[in-house]
């Protein structure tokens, strides 16, 4: 039987967290990161995953209500967590559009050294001019150019990591240290995106290079993952969609000389636990209503309608007016591309669904913006996760709790032991590095 992989996601920009719950904690204090990371390590999870945005989203000139203001830098948090964990992998989302290879390669090599081989990089791209305003280059790149830059960015970073051989060592001389070879770390790289040469000054990372994640779902993103990534942070956690996605990306691997086991598919997944399946279903309904407040429902509605709907009643029907199409949207940042199809067509679908089920605006938004992946008693959830993995829906899941930082506790206490009883989950960490614990080949 396949072994189940699990990881923990510390949410930041989403509609997963229940902010209003009295048990909800800070999303910026270091103690919250430590609490969730240590719980994940207690549960023998593979890694802790931290996403990052490069600009706070805006809507109608206001900060988007689901964004975290004041989130510390990803590398700073992960480096600090390396000191308070021992086995847990440390994965961070770092952008390839508005950063530079030398800097990112150096930061990840440093994190891998500080953590004794537990670093992972989720390689992402940015699409919008709004985010680009924070950077010297500004603007944005078309989709095909974004992925071309990402590929070349990763190739360049890999060349920097490989500029040190495994046998390159630092020798002590008095209070200083020196290299035995003068050309250690020497590199030169030229392509359509980068033209750099110099000397990389961080020794080869313990893993050779960090574990590479990819999170895009487009055809370009899937090809990038098949060619370059060790794992995919997928959004396909449902059975049918997950199996289709899994078969698609695994089927692309032979073209790049890779095996099925060289790429892990790890969808993000939410969960709600109860003593019984019925109790869990009741809790799940309440959680969804807390996740989508009236205010939040209006924000989602505005993203599609492209209108100021602040006076709209979230407990009433959908607006009678049609959405305003166009690229100049009232939502700035990632929120502005939540809907990729014709907004009028989507609005018509929403109206049909709302009328057929007599749903208010808020109830409709609850319905169309997603729901929990796994709902039930611990036994039900453990069984479902195992069934999904054995059926090639996924190789495991990156769990996103609706409460931070304590929302993972019951899963670790009640679900993990059941997976261990099924013989599909580890009882101890098998290796010292993240690459070893994920079962990936050495590089």
TrEMBL record:
- Report domain Luciferase-like positions: 19-391
Membrane-spanning parts: none
Task: Spell out the SUPFAM superfamilies in the cross-references.
Answer: Bacterial luciferase-like
Q: Name a GO molecular-function annotation.
A: monooxygenase activity
The superkingdom listed in its UniProt entry is Bacteria
Q: Where does FMN bind?
A: 93, 147, 218
Regarding protein family, the annotation reads: Belongs to the NtaA/SnaA/DszA monooxygenase family.
Record protein name field: NtaA/DmoA family FMN-dependent monooxygenase
The organism encoding this protein is: Gordonia asplenii
